[in-house]
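CHAIN AND CONFORMATION:
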Amino acid sequence: MKTREIDFKIAVNKPVKEIRSGDELTTAGGKKFKVTDVFEYEGRKVFQTDRFGLIYEDEMV
């Protein structure tokens, strides 16, 4: 089975370092989503969202 890697970046309307659980964010394309949880996994900060699932901190700009 082949695997594919997707390079995913999401631009949001708030500095990434300031994002907290409960924040409602908007992408550059106008899509709104809510951060439902923030946690660390293998040394990386992870945001769980209601619309996009899990997003790592380094995937947000």
Remarks:
- Strands lie at 24-26, 32-41, 44-49, 53-56.
- The chain has one domain: 16-59.
